[in-house]
């Protein structure tokens, strides 16, 4: 075997235990959630090695010190204008939320969360990313912390077959400069990948077992076999990204930065709702809320299957594990939106798992 292929193979094998690990999003929009110290203990007890935190919450950052848990730290949307305004503001943010916590293992900074192309915050995303990137590099963290932003997959159209995925015309002016920046800085795009919502939106054409990533369910998508909907959504976004910023060039770029195992995209949110009624059952379901797919058993199936498939790579990117974050650690009873949005947690507030889920 040629030496360069051997190196590539060894790199793929080594990445399997790093990129393919599944982290958990630590949403905090709920009452009676455990304090940060107990949350971190729960992560460690269950061998969860990565966390996504949606804002720089000092008690959680303090609790993370020395834990070894790798962190994706979010920048709230409302903070983007001031960070986009000037580099000094970004320097202050990095000093206060990164440098001040030398014992926290920062992995990503997520600048804004699922901001739409027509949002009032959209013009501030890229300049905020650029300023934070410069500030991170100045602080000496450029080789270990990646600066990115998270997006929803509804920015794309023509998602089936996945190879035809492309961004909506009105989204291109927004997303293309961001993708060019990410390519230049060798940072991954953060993508929310939700087969649950795809299934809820099209039950006629999507089989439930396919959405639940169950074995032996699949479709032939224009000559390419997909055995689960997560792969199909991920690959459609991957195809859309490639259409805007070009194909990967060479083995090293395909795999990402050798020192960090970064790929082109991170599944920064995914999960399955386990319930869609209010806790006391007093609130009747409306037609828009009715969702018999939202059960504990289905959430168990989805998340356990997810742990398996993200280690293997998709049909477009075979052999390349996908860095993935399950949403969420706990149910969030103050989260806005439909009732099902409040029941994505994998643990109850008392620390008991809703269902068996093995992080390895």
UniProtKB/TrEMBL annotation:
Q: Which organism is it from?
A: Perilla frutescens var. hirtella
Pfam families referenced in this protein's UniProt entry, alphabetically: Glyco_hydro_17
Arranged from A to Z, the UniProt key words for this protein are:
Glycosidase, Hydrolase, Signal
| Keyword check for Hydrolase | yes
Q: Which family does it belong to?
A: Belongs to the glycosyl hydrolase 17 family.
- The UniProt annotation puts the region (Disordered) at 251-294
Q: Which residues cross the membrane?
A: none
Q: What InterPro entries has UniProt attached to this entry?
A: GH, Glyco_hydro_17, Glyco_hydro_17_plant
Bias type Polar residues, positions: 270-283
> What superkingdom heads the lineage?
Eukaryota
Among PANTHER family, the record links this protein to: GLUCAN ENDO-1,3-BETA-GLUCOSIDASE BG1-RELATED-RELATED (PTHR32227)
Under which name does UniProt file this protein? Answer: Glucan endo-1,3-beta-D-glucosidase
Q: Which GO terms describe its biological process?
A: carbohydrate metabolic process
Its taxonomic placement starts with:
Eukaryota, Viridiplantae, Streptophyta, Embryophyta, Tracheophyta
Claim: Transmembrane is one of the keywords in the record: no
The record's GO molecular-function terms, alphabetically, read: hydrolase activity, hydrolyzing O-glycosyl compounds
Span of the secretion signal?
1-20
